[in-house]
Amino acid sequence: MTTAVWKLELQLLLRSKLLLLALLVFGIVAIWSVENGRRWYQYQQAATDSLAAATMANYNSVAAELDTLKTGAERIAVETPFTLDWRLKPVLSKPLSPLAALTVGQADVLPLHKSVRMTYPIFNNEFDEFRNPMQLLAGSFDLGFFALFLFPLLFIGLSYNLMAAEREQGIDRLWLVATRRQLQSALFSRLLFRWVVAWLPLSVALGYAYGWLQGQSAPASQPGTWVLAAVLYTGVWLSLSWLILSRGWSSMQNLVALLASWLLLLVVVPGLFNTVQEARDNGDTAVAIAEFRDVPGKAWDAPLDSHQRITAQRYPEYAKDTTGIVRQTMMRSYGYLRITMQQEQALHQQISDQILQQADAQAASFWVNPAAATLRSFSQSAHTTAVQQVAFEQQVLAYKQQRFEHMWDNMILDSHYTRRHLQQMPGAPTVRLSANSQPWGPLLLWLALPALLAALLSRRQHNA
Fold it and tell me: Closest Cα to residue 442, out of 396, 389, 376?
């Protein structure tokens, strides 16, 4: 029976110029969403390569100059940690999976490149850098957005009047004179066919994306995970539609129920969750970041005795003698940086803990928010979640600490800083961003529960 139904559905599809035009338009939109993400990804990769080249050029320039220094004044002008740090201008870049082109997520509003300079706090120019990863904050139109928001609308438009239109028009078709059990089977077969048809624009876009991903030097991590999440999420809409259409309502009632489901799952539930999260956030983070901007000035103005005590913790012999303006300035500089970096790390850890708690709360909401679960799966594959951003920034701070200790150790404990010391400076680490477990449980529940309810209610009606 399924083969006969699909043949008839295919004939109806080919006869409808309006449906074919709609599929063409959605296909073009889907491909454009991939192209939009691809251009963004290539721009970010070009920026990463440019920063890496600039960092290497700065390194080579400083290394060449260190060999030419002769007088003490020349050495002081170049070899001090402040000057070296400023001349080298180190930057650490967050690695992006090519799948970020399909799910930009937060990556266009969260910084992908962080300065590792000692005097450049990680919070600079980022007054509110941590956000809910379920919000496409900048309105990024990518394939993830298409799958989450536009696919359900296309499927609703294709399926809302299944069976209901025939009943309303009085068209005598084979499945209308069949038994109730056969009718439900025919309904699901027709609905499944139209689900496959709705997948055509998404499939074309995925094929286009696959061809582009094959040409990337960096391998795409977990492309199958992205596709599986899309299949499960769209399967949720197949299951929900079957539950609604099997009730035998009119076309208008079906359309209202399906659009209400779309609004509930994609607007109301995420909006309520975000409202609750914002209510819990009393603004302490933004206030703490704003107050942190006063820390460097206060640290520098602290009495020399406090800087001497801080210096003595790591360099006890050096801190014994406070005579001379140069030695006093060095101890003040070291103490100021040590205080600033310690408070920076403490504040970032506080914010990181808060983000991890929010992520756990978001994961708990997936049981009533399948769209958020899908977006989390998309974003994890693309390395664009807020949790992965926190992990990246923690590695930035750790690398900054390594460089800080290296430059000051060699400045304080050796006669002067040479090319040999520069070559021993810790190199940029490989940033590693691990993905958490995928939210398959909520998606499978949303896929199975409506289908089970539809089957049970249909059997009850058949028995009645």
Answer: 376
Q: How confident is the model at residue 178 (pLDDT cuts 50, 70, 90)?
A: very low
Q: What pLDDT, in 10s, does the model give residues 362-380?
A: 888 899 999 999 999 998 8
CB environment 311-338: b (16+ within 10 A), e (fewer): beeebeebbeeeeeeeeeebbbbbbbbb
Sort residue 283 into left (φ over 0), alpha (ψ -120 to 50) or beta: left
Q: Distance (Å, rounded) from C-alpha 328 to C-alpha 350? A: 33
SS3 (DSSP) at 179: coil
The CA-based diameter of the chain, rounded to the nearest angstrom, is: 104
CB 133 within 8 A of CB 105: yes
Q: Average of pLDDT values for 250-262?
A: 93
Map residue 142 onto helix, strand or coil. coil
Residue 236 pLDDT more than 80? yes
- Could you tell me if 155 and 191 are in contact, meaning their C-beta atoms sit under 8 angstroms apart? no
Per-residue pLDDT for 217 more than 70?
A: no
Decide if 201 contacts 154 (C-beta within 8 A).
yes
Q: Which run of H or E residues covers position 93?
A: strand 91-93
- The chain-wide mean pLDDT, for the chain, equals 84
CA nearest to 93, candidates 386, 396, 401, 339: 396
pLDDT tens digits, one per residue of 18-41: 999 999 999 999 999 999 999 989
Would you list the DSSP string of 359-422?
A: HHHHHHHGGG-HHHHHHHHHHHHHT-SHHHHHHHHHHHHHHHHHHHHHHHHHHHHSSS--HHHH
* Cα separation, 127 vs 285, whole angstroms: 9
**CA dist., res. 410 & res. 430, Å (int):** 24
Specify the pTM. 0.86
pLDDT over 70 (residue 177): no
Place of tokens 């009645």: 464
DSSP string, 189-207: HHHHHHHHHHHHHHHHHHH
φ/ψ of 124, rounded to 5, equals -60, 135
Q: Which of 184, 185, 226, 115 is nearest to 461 (CA)?
A: 184
Query: Cα–Cα distance between 228 and 225 in angstroms, integer?
Result: 5
Distance CA 401, CA 386 (A): 23
